[in-house]
């Protein structure tokens, strides 16, 4: 088991560790599924945030959700991609953290999610907090001990 003597980093603000919104690929409400599929394919990300016109977080969208939405009884109905809006496909039941939350809350939630969306007090998307960033922090912390 990893033994961490100094737990101060658990209290540091999440804002120190987030990938800021302007660097995060996203889609907007009203975009169609074809556009979202292109963004997901080109970026290679497993899921991306859906924002409204005021940059407020509305949900998350993955390739799996899109494919599931066009699954017909006998075949995949690709022709529906153009008419389907991301609004109807996205998952709105997602955990979020606030820019004012501490590292520890993010760490607890990251156990079950590869990344978390971070929002400000108005629900405006501020960025993401990823497992990769956390692992990098732990690596830095553990190696600096030797
Ligand atoms: P990572 O920890 O970098 O492997 O990222 C895990 C997941 O976080 C990715 O599969 C994406 O769903 C999401 N993600 C990470 N970076 C970005 C980004 N710049 N834009 C959109 N989504 C991202």
UniProtKB/TrEMBL annotation:
Keywords of the record, alphabetical order, are:
CBS domain
Q: Which InterPro entries match?
A: CBS_CbpB (IPR048125), CBS_dom (IPR000644), CBS_dom_sf (IPR046342)
Organism ancestry: Bacteria, Bacillati, Bacillota, Bacilli, Bacillales
| Domain CBS residue range list | 18-84
The highest taxon in the source lineage is: Bacteria
Q: What is this protein called?
A: Cyclic-di-AMP-binding protein CbpB
Matching Pfam families: CBS (PF00571)
